[in-house]
Amino acid sequence: MGMSTPVAALLGILLIGGLTMIVIGSAPIHQLSTGQSTSLWTTVDNWF
Q: If you average pLDDT over every residue of the chain, what do you get?
């Protein structure tokens, strides 16, 4: 019972983080090649 809250919080953070990554990367990702995809992660890291 005590683990349910941290797990739910973690899932929520992952969900929000994923949606944020999609929103931030939705426009630039179409312009990025496979080799430049790491810049997207750098952008996401800067937001957090």
A: 71
